[in-house]
Amino acid sequence: MVSERIKDLRERDGYSQTALSKKLGLTRSSINAWETGISVPSTQYLVELSRLFKVSTDYILGMDTSESLLIGNLTIEQKNILSALVEQFERYNKFTQAMDMDPASDTEETLELMKEFKRTKASE
Length: 124
Description:
By secondary structure, the chain is mainly alpha-helical. The protein folds into two domains: about 1-60, 434 Repressor (Amino-terminal Domain) (Orthogonal Bundle); about 75-124, no CATH class. It contains seven helices and no strands. Helix 1 (about 1-10) packs across helix 3, helix 2 (about 15-25) crosses helix 3 and helix 6 (about 75-100) packs across helix 7 (about 110-124). It is elongated.
């Protein structure tokens, strides 16, 4: 699990094994050993990886499946905008999941989501 997370994060951020090794002051073979499961990073390097990739150490270790976003340097207004955007994504995801359901199984919540989506689209 740790090996997969490190590789996925490295690739997500566009680092080669060599580039990541230079960033951390290690050899490329050390990074390769982490990614193949031959060894695991020390606590020091787990912390450095979490800072570099902006995820928690728990995420790298596979103990937490959620990802986080560091927003400490944003203004209140920017945080509010992000919060509203996340809410819209959640509504959209619920709506699209509901649309995949059998129409005969429409629940009151599904109908309400459809109405909300129509209101949102109408106000755009």
